[in-house]
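Something for you to look into today, if you have time. Could you write out one complete protein record for me, on any chain you like? The space below this message is yours for that.
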Amino acid sequence: MSDTLQTASDDLLTEPQFWSKPHSDRMASYARLRAESPVSWHPENVSDWLPEGGRGFWAVTRYADIVSISKDFKNFSSAQGTNPMDEPGRPVETLGMLHMDPPQHRRFRRIVNPAFTGDLLESLTPTIEKTADEVLDIFADSAELDIVQPLIHNYTISVICNILGLPQSERGAFLAATMKAFGPDREAAIAGHNFMIDYVKTLAVERRANPGEDVLSRVATAQVEGEMLSDTDVAYFVALLLGAGAETSASTIMQGMWNLFQNPDQLAAVRDDLDRLPKAVEEMLRIGSAVICFRRSATTDITIENADIKEGDKVVLFYESGNNDETVFSTPGTFDIARDPNQHVSFGGYGPHLCLGAPLARKEINTFYRKFLTRFSEFEILQPPTFAPNQRFNIVTSMPVRLTQS
């Protein structure tokens, strides 16, 4: 591998301090990389963040390269993991089709895809609306509150648990496991994945024997060309859905609220015409970039942007940088609810791994804001959102607000 593309900022992507930086500082580092070294090599040195060190990785920061590599599954595989850091076996396995390449990935996706499209997705509307009303009831009980826990515990995690038909009594445990599984502590991540897998395998057996109308039953009993998912594969799918869908949607909602508060003219425009919400939500998804990055592994020697990538090298796609690429998005640091087109990469780079749950996430976020802006005439964010230092996800940990009911 070549080290000729390193820059003064190239160690930042592997240090916890980088992921605790203010958003604007991180964007400046990405802009520097896009301009100077769009595909740059980053060593993974021994640190508290990574006690045993690592092999290092290539950081891909330009939008066009992110999209190109996302579509090129033959040269850039997902099968060896999507975490920038190397993982011991089971976490890779437990994310199921996220860590598969076509044609295997295509077969699995065909089985579960009907659960999140068309008529079935539309049938989930009453459940999502009811859950949004319940969390807004929590908001209404206090003029001031930190909205992180209500949004994750009582909205996004509840929506997913409701549509899967998971027992109410287990939701707290599932949330705790989710936060561990997608956090920076590797041992905790393994424990979180293991909890979800072992529990859902038991549920899959039960649903096959006594299927209901919930999504878990549909996935457990679905067939494509006479094939069904195994109990383990069903568990992997649910773990992926819980992990990828709960926290990311909640953090997008919270970051969107912060951006609306910071831009009162944009907030007033949405309030005046709620039909503007779909475009506003796309801008929330772009500027929030809940998923910071995912990794691929090179299956052959290949050159991208003058970077000589070797077979087996880790190649990390920084969606957060792609969503701020000034060659694609005019004034990318500006929150603009009228941005059109807005072909962000917050759900992936338009390849085979384009997020299966994207329609559900959009519906959750749109539903929440349609109800929130109707129910509360004013809101004030008392402190800017704080984030957990995390290389993969923009996780909001605190955002206290003051609310005025309509």
User: Anything to note?
Assistant: The chain has one domain: 12-376.
